[in-house]
Amino acid sequence: MPGEIRVERQGAIARVVLAHPGKLNAMSRGMWRALREAFVALHADDTCRAIVVQGDGGQFCAGGDIAEYPEFRFDPAALADFHERDVWGGLGAVLDCDVPVIACIEGACMGAGVEIAACCDLRHAGAAAKFGAPIARLGFPMAPREMEVVLAAAGEATVREMLLAASAVDAPEMKSRGFLHAVWPDAEVAAHAMHLAERIARLAPQAARLNKQALRRLRAYHPVARWSAAELAAAYAYAPGEEHREGVSAFLDKRQPRF
Asked: With respect to CATH, is domain 4-187 assigned 3.40.30.10?
């Protein structure tokens, strides 16, 4: 079954479910586009007062769907299109949504999962959740605007550890570093996230939307105009490089990369 983004409504609360069976909900290109569509629609829906983003089957999101990568990653223009149109389209829609967004994080929260969680307003996790962005093993860096969002939410020390050492960090440590707002027993995190959504849904919806609009203006992390077109284009010049090809190929071949 290909990946999908499901939107499930419970009154004023929407659950946006990342679902990619057999791949720990890894994000495909189609899922990034569907994520954007879901959040654009929820932003425009005055009946929606809270959103919970959750992975299917007890996992949040293990990253990107690497099986797709040979189709586009080794051409600079195609790679830029993927990150700037598909990925940023989805992340930007989460950031631009005026409805409060809660990340309910279970299991793997890697790469794309960390990026999605970083765009949410509140982040609750199960005690066994793991966080990281081990893309150095795949031979490529994090895209500039994506890094900027994660940097603002997770902090420089954590981002350096994840990107430069390919380290995974557990939920209690991520809470101590300020990325998570709460850590719960794994069996309870979904209920606590929904309880928080219900509490938010009982509050003044216009105030929530106005607060989010003000936060976007006050926080420098919303990277709308920080990067010039030339800078973004240059960021993907590594696409045809040997390290990039070797990292992706090694993952797909289930072997250690030789850098």
From this structure: no
